Amino acid sequence: MMLSSSPYKKSSHSVSQLMQLVIFATIPGAIALFYFFGWGVWFNLIVCCSVAYASEWLIVKLRNRDPKKVLSDYSALLTAVLLALALPPLAPWWVATIGTLFAIVFAKHLYGGLGYNPFNPAMTGYVLLLISFPMAMTTWLPPQSIAAQAPDFISSLQLFFSGSDSQGNTLNYYTLNADGFTMATPLDEIKTSFSMGYVFDEIKNKPIFGDWQNVGWQWVNLAFLAGGLFLIVKKAISWHIPVSFLAAIYITSFLAHGYDPQLNPAPMIHLLSGATMLGAFFIATDPVSATTTNKGRIIFGAAIGFIVVMIRNYGGYPDAIAFAVLIMNMAAPLIDHYTQPKVYGSQELK
Amino acid sequence: MSPDNQNTIAYTTTYKFHGGIHPEEHKTLSNQTPIIDLPAPPIVVLPLNQHSGAQSLPCVAVGDSVVTGQKIAEAKGNRSAHVHASASGTVVAIENRVIAHPSGQSDLCIVIETQDNNKQHFLPPINNPFTTSKQSLLDRIFESGIVGLGGAAFPSHIKLMPDVDRLIINAAECEPYITCDDRLMQDEAPQLIQAFELLRHIVSAKECIIGIEDNKPEAIAQLTSAIETSGLTTINICIVPTKYPSGGEKQLIELITGQQVPKGQLTTSLGLVMHNVATAFAIFEAVTLGKPLIDRVTTVTGLGCERRGNYRIRLGTPLQWILEQLGVPAEQKFTTIMGGPMMGFKVPNTAASVVKSTNCLIVAEPDELNEPSTALPCIRCGECADVCPANLLPQQLYWFARSDEFEKAENYNLFDCIECGACAYVCPSEIPLVHYYRYAKNEIVLRAKEKQQAAKARERFEFREFRLKREKAERAEKHRKAAEARKKAAEAKGQTNEKKATIAEAVARAKARKQKKQDDQSS
Ligand code: SF4
Ligand code: SF4
Fold first, then answer.
1. pLDDT value at position B458?
2. Which residue of A has its CA nearest to B347?
């Protein structure tokens, strides 16, 4: 018998609509990545999405469910998109493939599928890749505006699939700047420069930081910020996590910078580099693995922001969104338990 | 009338309640025309359980002829309600009939075949209610079988017993589609003001506040001018924003007073009591006309019904007959909902009839309402918690209810859920959350009962064991005592023999000694 229960009216947001909206909101960020870092982002997107689709279809079949129904919720696609956007453009194709497989099969379906995964699948895949293939995961092309040479579409395709293009250049060749030095992301640059004994004032003058914040990266981050604000306006995500996350990044880095300006990057660098905005609006907000109470979300977001700055400033990795998110995923049930709202009528009793 | 003057009668609240939703209203479907009387149907089927509390007991027999307004079933105890004949005619059956219930179940009903509806038997009007004693008024309300007409169907005479500071009239009517109170206020404003004043008098309140949503400007205008013409200074109108479920008792109290009813307590702990518009009207008619509760205004709406509107319908009127009267083609398969779309239920069988709590019938076209679809897993988005007026965590309650972790569900305040359905309304996974809460509440109550019974059974069992043991022990004791007695007796017997022997011995010895002495002396 079909279950019939009030209410007989529903609002229009469905899970698949929500997921589609979030995917849609990544478009500005993806375009910015394309603009500054070339074709790789599309390749990653295509590979991640196809692998996600295929692997989810297969595993759902194995679990004896209806693949059509499961796939129509778009959650696997969103996981794939987020992972693709976090990967270095032109990392080899198998990086994207392995990461997606792990995210969908292990991080999602072995835990029971949508709604049951305690860890953010995209970030689980990302961390696996970072630990297994550190070289491939940290080789970023420089922004095209300051690159000595940028690979064209054909070269990019060749680099992506075979590791070198028809002229025999590998990815490393394209990461060199005009002076023949390897260029990295701003956060990498900071990390390595600090370890080489430079101070922040000197590092700031490197070409990657440009005149205003981080060349290329600030626009990528602003694009994700725009997409994120759109999601808040559309009520697809609540403001709690992004706001507390960004506030915590700002405050923590501000204090660290104030404490020792030469050894800790300025807050704006933190806010507008790496995966900050992608993390704030698209990754930390994954409802399944985050806290579910509003008070809890503020704590959750703030803790992630804090951990990110701590790892960036004092830890071994240049960026830290993935680690911070996974750490806080573990704490989410506990936070939920201690942040229950006050039930109607219980205020007066105290 | 000056605008200032008007402002003092009607004001807008500044308070809010947590959560709430804005479903599409669909009120204009039915609130455009005045209330119409439906005639008496050929038969009325009156369930004996139209109220919360014990089922009432029939006081007529099959074959009796009855007249409109005659009591046909007695309240069983004080917390129940009488049932009156809603039409004149002959009682043709007292038997189980399909009642309006989500499961389509049957229950005991009195069935009357109607004839000659001009006859009626009302109680004598109370002409000067404001000088009549409270007890007489409460008796009248009880005699008239009046229960809360907003949906809960709680006997009104009980709710009116305690005296309070403030009477609140619930005119919010926040559920989509329903307009029966709205229409009653538009059509009968002057009468209603008298009714409210009467209720205020009964509970000795200093003031009466009408809580009404701002989507009923026509009703607000009618009430305002009726208050003005009446010259009463005890009645005010508090306009609350349109937001479901503002008409929930606790929510409306928070909207009007800014206070929350303390958990586990009644509204009287805040010096308040709340009554619904239609209930007040029924009480007014019972007092001033002597008319028992035999009909009510019900909204008949939905796109499946062409002649939508509000109708005064006799209790016990079969839904099927109403639909026929209003031109709903019988062969068409429409979904019929009793109550609103948020808290009502689907009527599986239109042979069921209108009861005291039937405020609305929705005859829905196939696509008009959301039919249950296959739910997705909960993605913990928390939208349900954002809209929950009780400030619960519906997603956690769902989790616990689903996995039968009832104790945890109770710890997360399951019983503070008012089943408003706001959570399920927004849930992107389309989980029928309220269904799970009802299930969990039922199970908990059931298990508590079972536990009680089990405890009683165990007690009985243990007592029996105890008794058996005691009896056994007593028997054993008896045996022991008997044995002892026997032994003693035996011993005693033994002892006597011994004594005799000793004595004999002693005697013998003495004799011997004597003999020896004599022998010595003689020698
Ligand atoms: S709205 Fe539905 S999916 Fe979202 S948390 Fe609540 S129950 Fe889960
Ligand atoms: S049905 Fe219960 S849990 Fe859901 S919103 Fe209403 S009060 Fe909250």
1. 84
2. A4
**What spacing in Å lies between the alpha carbon of A84 and ligand 1's midpoint?**
27
Q: Quick one: DSSP state of residue B118?
A: T
Tell which of B291, B318, B347 closes a domain: B291
Domain co-membership, B281 together with B427: no
Of residues B391, B413, B434, nearest to A5 (C-beta): B434
Assigned domain for B355 exists: no
Residue type (1 letter), A212? W
Query: A139 or B122, which is more confident?
Result: B122
Selected residues 419-458 of chain B with any CB under 8 Å from a CB in chain A: 421, 424-430, 432, 434-435, 438
Q: Are strands B89-98 and B272-276 parallel, antiparallel or unpaired?
A: unpaired
Residue (of B57, B12, B27, B20) closest to B308 by Cα position = B27
Return the residue of B nearest to A16 by Cα. B428
Q: Which pLDDT score, from 0 to 100, does residue A212 have?
A: 54
- Token pair of B101 as six digits: 């219930």
Residues of A in Cβ contact (< 8 Å) with B434: 5-7
Name the nearest CA neighbour of B283 among B353, B203, B355: B203
Final residue before a domain boundary, out of B291, B318, B337: B291
Residue of the CA atom closest to atom 2 of ligand 2: B417
| Number of domain units in chain B | 2
Enclosing domain of residue B161: 1-29+123-291
Question: Do both B260 and B404 map to the same domain?
Answer: no
pLDDT, mean over chain B: 89
Low-confidence ranges of chain A (pLDDT < 70): 1-4, 145-148, 176-184, 207-214, 347-350
